[in-house]
Amino acid sequence: MKIQIQNETFILHPSGAVFWESKKIIIISDVHLGKVTHFRKHGIAIPQNAISENFRKITAVLDYFLPEKIIFLGDLFHSVKNAEWNLFEEWLSIHDQETYLITGNHDIIDEIHYKKIGVIVTELLELNHFFHASSYRKRKSV
Q: What is the pLDDT of residues 75-109, one digit of tens each?
């Protein structure tokens, strides 16, 4: 489904992702990587294959739209670094899109870890008069 906002076209994907057509940006919210491992560590039964399914879904969206940039709108990781961080790092290494994380309340992993793997972390992002912000103060423009 396509929608128009301020003369810009956005495509809503069934996965929940949004593609900003003119900017070739994919916008994905609340991925919560690491959640499966976190829950399993605490005795909550979640199928192990749910981890690979998360990455498969994101990859399918990227393959469909072929974006130049990825913007994760908060809660990319559920909590602290765990085994899924290594999978994310590996996944990211095979994707060449410029990648942003606009921090959410679950994003407690230190920004330095994201910087090491090329993810730009910010709390406010302005794109052609569109804003997304967390409850913090940092700001980046692209």
A: 788 566 777 788 889 999 999 999 998 887 666 67
pTM of full prediction above 0.85: no
| Of 30, 122, 115, the residue nearest 76 (C-alpha) | 30
In the structure encoding, which two tokens stand for residue 76, read together? 């990319």
Across-strand partners of 35?
none
Q: Note every long-range contact of 13-16, with CB atoms under 8 Å and residues 24 or more positions apart, other chains counting.
A: 13/61, 13/64, 13/65, 15/57, 15/60, 15/61
CA angle 111, 114, 116 (to 5 degrees): 110
DSSP E strands: which ranges in 21-94? 25-29, 69-73
